[in-house]
């Protein structure tokens, strides 16, 4: 099936179709499973710390093992997905991380958890490069931030499901079962993906009108671009910097929130669920709202540069108050500050993850996302080691949350300096021969 790109305004909205949103729903489901898998440890950490006997520094190394593998995986995953395509590349990634998630049930020591987390990080690294590339293939630029915001909400849904389900499963069948049960979800998604997913031009259920809508942006070159060549451009470095500076804050929330709530407010495995669920529900709203906000600014007449950065500024300001969280005595006030910060991060991410498709052609998007994800994971490793050392030495989260609260304003300034107009990178790609 093929169709010539046409301006979106020439296709009546009622005739465009909505199949692309079904694809987005599959990305949402995959991201949800991805975060359920990685968040199981975060929920069980206070219990496993006593059961296995690790200290704060050792837990920092367990978290860092995941992030190191995630960084390595992201550096390779983008290029692999660009080469294999989203259908096979995504399937490969979820197959690896499913086996690794279940492998945690075999761990009985700090070394065992380090190995399991490393394997999980390698597999899970493929999720965001594959999902962002799929969005670039299935959505015109004006819809991409909203689509990214929707699938990125899966990170919060997964983080909500984990504290709901994990304590129940662990109490009934043991902590090993909590890791094993995620394999069923992953296998189900993998089977559906392989059975149903095809690129737009090969999808028989896609109407010609919707394909024309998807391809309504100006055509892009189709040649392959080595990822090292991408690093010559400051547009790449703007995305890398944004991820390196702000991803560590999300890693902090993901792996240390349960420990923070347990140590500061005396919560147990049985009582930690409601505060964590509240935090991630707020993050879910932020993920979708952040993508919607950029689109709203565009509809108000703002250009893409102003709209994207305006939305990022709003999100950055939502994170800043988390610096005060260690100064409050009330659990739910602390939950509110952390939830607002996580909502701000997810709204920020919905826009940051759209930057590669704003500035680069579709065939390079997964590679750029992979490079940026590598930088984010490297920053996360540094944050985990810093957090473990800080807590072991002082027992205080004060400095840790101060760093978290200031990171986003700094990152936005760096992005603006490196890409002041979000102009497309000049890759000097060869032109298609004239007809």
Largest sheet: none
| Helix-strand string | HHHHHHHHHHHHHHHHHHH
Question: Could you name the CATH topology?
Answer: Growth Hormone, Chain: A
- Percent helix: over 70%
The number of domains is 1
Spatial gap, N to C terminus: 21 Å
Unreliable segments (pLDDT under 50, ≥5 consecutive)? 1-14, 430-435
Q: Look at the helices and sheets and give the structural class.
A: mainly alpha
Tell me how many strands there are: 0
The whole-angstrom Rg is 21 Å
Structural features, described:
The protein is mainly α and 435 residues long. It has a single domain (17-215, 228-418), classed as MFS general substrate transporter like domains (Growth Hormone, Chain: A), CATH 1.20.1250. The chain is 76% helix and 0% strand. It has helices at 13-16, 19-52, 56-84, 86-103, 110-124, 127-138, 141-152, 154-173, 175-180, 182-196, 208-214, 227-230, 234-265, 273-299, 304-319, 331-352, 355-359, 362-394, 398-418. The longest helix has 34 residues, at 19-52. The protein is globular and about 55 Å long. The chain crosses the membrane at residues 59-81, 88-107, 113-132, 144-166, 172-195, 237-257, 277-298, 310-326, 332-353, 365-386, 398-419.
Features:
435 residues; mainly alpha; Growth Hormone, Chain: A; 76% helix; 0% strand; disordered C terminus
Give the secondary structure arrangement, pairings included.
Layout: H1 13-16, H2 19-52, H3 56-84, H4 86-103, H5 110-124, H6 127-138, H7 141-152, H8 154-173, H9 175-180, H10 182-196, H11 208-214, H12 227-230, H13 234-265, H14 273-299, H15 304-319, H16 331-352, H17 355-359, H18 362-394, H19 398-418
Helix pairs in contact: 2-4, 2-6, 2-7, 2-8, 2-10, 2-13, 3-4, 3-5, 3-18, 4-5, 4-6, 4-10, 6-7, 6-18, 7-14, 7-16, 8-14, 13-16, 13-18, 13-19, 14-15, 14-16, 15-16, 15-19
Membrane topology: Multi-pass membrane protein
Keywords: Cell inner membrane, Cell membrane, Membrane, Signal, Transmembrane, Transmembrane helix, Transport
InterPro entries: MFS, MFS_dom, MFS_Na/Anion_cotransporter, MFS_trans_sf
């Amino acid at each position: 099936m093929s169709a010539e790109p046409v301006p979106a305004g020439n296709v009546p909205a009622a005739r465009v179709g909505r199949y692309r949103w079904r694809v987005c729903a599959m990305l949402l489901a995959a991201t949800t499973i991805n975060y359920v898998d990685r968040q199981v440890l975060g929920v069980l950490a206070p219990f496993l710390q006593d059961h296995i006997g690790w200290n704060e520094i050792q837990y920092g190394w367990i978290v860092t093992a995941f992030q190191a593998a995630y960084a390595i995986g992201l550096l390779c995953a983008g290029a692999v997905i660009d080469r294999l395509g989203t259908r096979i590349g995504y399937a490969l990634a979820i197959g690896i991380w499913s086996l690794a998630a279940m492998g945690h049930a075999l761990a009985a020591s700090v070394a065992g958890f380090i190995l399991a987390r490393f394997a999980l990080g390698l597999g899970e690294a493929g999720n965001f490069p594959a999902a962002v590339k799929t969005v670039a293939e299935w959505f015109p630029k004006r819809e991409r931030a909203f689509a990214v915001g929707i699938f990125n909400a899966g990170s919060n849904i997964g983080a909500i499901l984990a504290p709901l389900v994990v304590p129940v499963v662990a109490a009934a069948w043991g902590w090993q079962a909590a890791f094993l049960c995620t394999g069923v979800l992953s296998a189900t998604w993998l089977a559906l993906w392989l059975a149903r997913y095809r690129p737009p031009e090969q999808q028989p259920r896609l109407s010609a009108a919707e394909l024309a809508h998807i391809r309504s942006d100006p055509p892009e070159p189709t040649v392959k671009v080595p990822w090292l060549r991408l690093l010559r451009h400051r547009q790449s470095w703007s995305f890398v910097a944004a991820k390196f500076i702000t991803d560590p804050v999300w890693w902090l929330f993901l792996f240390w929130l349960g420990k923070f709530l347990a140590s500061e407010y005396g919560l147990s495995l049985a009582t930690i669920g409601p505060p964590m669920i509240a935090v991630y529900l707020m993050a879910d709203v932020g993920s979708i709202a952040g993508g919607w906000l950029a689109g709203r600014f565009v509809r108000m007449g703002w250009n893409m540069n102003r709209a994207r950065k305006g939305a990022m500024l709003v999100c950055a300001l939502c994170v800043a108050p988390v610096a005060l969280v260690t100064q409050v005595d009330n659990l739910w006030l602390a939950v509110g500050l952390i939830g607002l910060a996580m909502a701000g991060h997810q709204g920020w991410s919905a826009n940051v993850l759209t930057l590669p498709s704003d500035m680069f052609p579709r065939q390079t998007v997964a590679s750029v996302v992979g490079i940026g994800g590598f930088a984010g994971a490297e920053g996360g490793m540094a944050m985990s080691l810093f957090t473990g050392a800080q807590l072991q030495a002082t027992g205080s989260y004060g400095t840790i949350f101060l760093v978290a609260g200031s990171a986003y304003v700094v990152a936005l300034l760096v992005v603006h300096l490196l890409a002041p107009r979000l102009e497309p990178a000049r890759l000097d790609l060869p032109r298609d021969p004239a007809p």
